Prior knowledge:
By secondary structure, the protein is α/β, with parallel strands linked by helices.
Amino acid sequence: MKTLDQIFPTLKQVPEKFMMDFPIIQSEYLVNGKIKKWHGDFREVYSPVYIKNKNNYTNYLGAYPMMGEKEAMEALDAAEKAFDNGNGEWPKMTVEKRIECIRKFIVLMKEQKETIVNLLMWEIGKTLSDSIKEFDRTVEYINDTIEALKNLDRVSSRFTISQGIIAQIRRAPFGVTLCMGPYNYPLNETFTTLIPALIMGNSIIFKPPKLGVLLHYPLLKAFQKSFPKGVVNTVYGKGENIITPIMESGKINVLAFIGTSKVANTLKMHHPKLNRLKCVLGLEAKNPAIILKDADLDETVKECVLGTLSYNGQRCTALKIIFVHEDIADKFLNKFSKAVENLKIGMPWDDGVNITPLPEPSKPAYLTELIEDAVVYGAKVVNPNGGEQYKSLFFPAILYNVNNKMRIYYEEQFGQVIPVIKYKNIKEPLDYVIESNYGQQASIFGKDSDEISELIDTLVNQVCRVNINSQCQRGPDDFPFTGRKDSAEATLSVSDALRVFSIRTLVAAKETDTNKKIIREILKDEKSNFLNTDFIL
Ligand code: G3H
């Protein structure tokens, strides 16, 4: 078996179809319908995938603009004008026409699939299969969003009469929406907020995550060609230089942010008119696996490997702590450790690879710190090679005998350190969930329906999804995805997202002859885009 320092390839060893013309210097940004040239400072982009060149390594991928307050304000101004207090072309456009624009965008986006998939591998080290999945899942999400909106619009195309009042109830956009996605799903999770916000008639300021920026570059033209000017604007740079002034302006109506609760709280606090600000937040989690004494160990191990280590554990939904009943703890650890030992570590495009380079330069050192801290308080790494590292590569470490003195007990590791705790009484994992700052999901592994049902009834009031004999996950995307406490604000799913980015709004009139006549005339001559009974086919 190769040691970690032998894993990075030479240039020749990179398969030709994944090679790109680096460096990619993004010297453009989209504002007010124009793709503008950037002449200021740049931020260099480095890959977690190092290329070996004799005794040296290179990993330079390119650069993107480091904008400042002036450009941020320009983007804000453009988005504000496009919305124009609800009078803009986009917010007033019929649902059917907005759908047409989104369809055009999908066609243009699909043309960029290969480039985006390759950049996902180079920029964030995601495996080829997961990168393809991320792209395809995003396109599917957009298509499903269109269908969900059609359904919503069909239901809203009728009138309601109650207590002598006739009304049509629809949904209206909020205004300028700031969309900021995470580095682990830079395309998918960004678009799960950006697309519904857009399709409901909001205008957008879009800031790509700190890692996974260049992969959005090929979409600038697609945005420009598909939407009226100012409806989508992009900003790049340091949050304090561009996002702080945007928030301080008080002109953001919706903040769609996926990242840490600390950053989310800071962003919110910059907004001077908190009641005007609607927040859609996907934040941290520390989802536990609770393994009961009658669990099927093979199935449990399979799900725990997937749950803890898919994309190197860098998923908000990852299983981040495992509680196993003392009667089966040794057996579980044995099997789990063997399964982890067999994982393949390599480059994102390698066949059957599981563990890939980590995109955050400081992550391997952070994970090592967590292990060292836990060892001081009595934990032990139980799998061979656990915690070994070289540059951006880190071999998963299973930490056993974890307790509440250790940082790993509380901190969201977002990487390949897996804390395992042996419990005697089911109260122990339940107390953990209750005391945790997070409340996203939990997984229960076992067979006894009496015991499982009791756990379900307790856990559903602490977390927002309880998985039985299955790892935690977001999908399918038509299921609600949310969390309690510091884990989320608002609920996302294909159909929920449409609701989150819009507000129920109605036109109502007393059922008098004059009012009926007015409404009839508006409908007959299709005078209003809002008040109409068109049924989208
Ligand atoms: O990072 C959090 C993602 O929403 C997780 O999604 O469960 O489909 O990997 P996933």
